[in-house]
Amino acid sequence: MPFVVSTPHARRTGSFLTLLSLGMLATAAAGQIPSALRLEPRGAFATGANSTFKTVNPVNNHTEYHFTYDGAPPDDNLDYVIDVDHPDVKAGLLRIYEAISASLPIKEGGFTWRINPGSGPNPTSGPAIYETPRTHSINAKTVRFHEHLDPTSRVLTLKYKETRNPEPNLSVEARKTYEFWIVGKVLKIHAYADPAVNTRFIDNYDFFAPGYRA
Length: 214
Known about the structure:
Elements: E1 3-6, E2 16-21, E3 24-29, E4 49-56, E5 63-70, E6 77-83, H1 87-90, E7 94-98, E8 103-116, E9 129-131, H2 133-139, E10 141-149, E11 156-167, E12 170-183, E13 186-193, E14 204-209
Parallel strand pairs: 1-13
Antiparallel strand pairs: 1-2, 2-3, 4-5, 5-6, 6-7, 7-8, 8-9, 8-14, 10-11, 11-12, 12-13
């Protein structure tokens, strides 16, 4: 199941586009390459029908967003589901469920959190010490303050405010946004941080980790 994940670096203004498809990885600077020349997974060109809708699961009363692909036989049918009431999603983690195959293509994804600059002679060198998205979600107080499915673009936007207390008298806030939309068979995810809220090098988002399959 292919995904496109666009992830601007948490502490830089540049935007980078990362393509994840069948284990192959490529990177290109977004906004600098004409759209006709950008690398896309083949699934983005699939000719089946896409739909995006919000529903309430009658079993657990959770709000879900579905991103579907309906292809003519023997083509695939796909139903990517984001359960915004799942504890992981409420905690700011990426969790994508694919209902047709009953699988989790993405679990525990999101931004890592830098807690130490590492051993290099300056802040940008040397191996950084960071927390995984899961560990960060445990140590942060996370509030989702925005949830919106655009009726025209069919893009789902989730915005989070996160607070950490790295020292007894120090409170650090950071904000991040996830955007989701489907093109062909490909669920696209744009993840980015708000640099105006947190400009720190330590105690800030470090890099994006797409999680793992389950």
